[in-house]
């Protein structure tokens, strides 16, 4: 979730890598809460504020009552396969190694496997580094045999400097293709997180639009902006604002984000 990074020496910008655990078997997501709690010590060093129950915002935003669909619980197998699709934050930018990014760390928290599809600079309207493609173009190239249990679509702030007149149409077309490609997968939309504070007005507009479109489909939506995942008090350790990090999460920040995503998933699990 950033402007296009300068081209690295490696010509491939997309990380399509997996981190796996034991073979998959079916069960409820209820155990995720315990797993997430176990790794809370990582973030406790940063003294973040405690959260209340039901912390994940299923945002309806601009979708009126007639447009909003019911949000079904997310029930995953014991060792789920999760496709994490997004931009540079999903890529793992600014972590010591990209594989220490939140999308990779999430695999351990879910005791499963994450297939990471992150491209720096990519958005629904902008093609990203080396013109690899917009979200819609990249979705069209995804392996149709992947068979994920869950898809997390993250971001993106990269469209914030584009004219947003056709933004909703681009999102709708990309999501239609994603749903058709993986009809049996649940989809969770993870909105843009603030790379700078205060939150830029265009980023907030993107957040509202994505929330409305997700709500109309009955897809759960998590807003790091509304939930204040990143505040002035903790920005300094979550975000690397230097020349190398360029307003991306630090390694500790990625671990924190992974934990927040795991908590959000647990909040959507079926009630015991």
3D architecture notes:
The chain has a six-stranded mixed β-sheet. The protein is an alpha/beta fold and 272 residues long. It has a single domain, classed as SGNH hydrolase (Rossmann fold, 3-Layer(aba) Sandwich). The protein is globular. The N terminus is likely disordered. The N and C termini lie far apart (35 Å). Strand 7 and strand 8 form a beta hairpin. The chain contains nine helices and eight strands.
CATH topology: Rossmann fold
Q: Identify the CATH architecture.
A: 3-Layer(aba) Sandwich
Q: Quick check: average pLDDT? A: 81
Radius of gyration over all CA atoms, rounded:
17 Å
**Amino- and carboxy-terminal Cα gap:** 35 Å
Largest sheet entry? 6 strands, mixed
> Which superfamily, in CATH terms, is the homologous superfamily?
SGNH hydrolase
Number of domains: 1
What amount of the residues lies in strands? Answer: 5-15%
CATH class: Alpha Beta
Poorly predicted runs: 1-14, 21-66
Task: List its salient traits.
272 residues; disordered N terminus; 9 helices; Rossmann fold; single chain; globular
């Amino acid at each position: 979730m950033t402007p296009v990074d300068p081209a690295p020496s490696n010509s491939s910008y997309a990380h399509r890598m997996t981190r796996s655990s034991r073979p998959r078997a079916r069960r409820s997501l209820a155990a995720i809460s315990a797993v997430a709690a176990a790794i809370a010590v990582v973030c406790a060093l940063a003294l973040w504020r405690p959260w209340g129950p039901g912390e994940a915002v299923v945002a309806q935003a601009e979708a009126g009552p007639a447009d909003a669909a019911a949000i079904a619980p997310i029930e995953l197998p014991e060792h789920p396969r999760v496709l994490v699709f997004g931009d540079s934050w999903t890529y793992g930018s600014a972590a010591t190694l990209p594989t220490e990014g939140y999308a990779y760390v999430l695999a351990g928290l879910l005791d499963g496997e994450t297939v990471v599809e992150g491209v720096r600079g990519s958005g629904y309207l902008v093609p990203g580094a080396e013109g690899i493609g917009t979200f819609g173009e990249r979705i069209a190239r995804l392996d149709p045999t992947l068979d994920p249990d869950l898809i997390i679509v993250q971001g993106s702030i990269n469209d914030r400097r584009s004219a947003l007149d056709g933004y909703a149409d681009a999102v709708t077309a990309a999501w239609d293709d994603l749903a058709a490609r993986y009809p049996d997968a649940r989809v969770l939309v993870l909105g843009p997180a603030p790379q700078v504070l205060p939150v830029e007005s265009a980023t907030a507009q993107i957040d509202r639009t994505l929330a409305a479109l997700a709500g109309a489909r009955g897809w759960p939506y998590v807003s790091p902006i509304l939930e204040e995942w990143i505040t002035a008090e903790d920005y300094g350790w979550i975000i690397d604002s230097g020349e190398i990090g360029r307003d991306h999460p630090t390694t500790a920040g990625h671990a924190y984000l992974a934990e927040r995503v795991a908590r959000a998933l647990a909040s959507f699990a079926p009630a015991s």
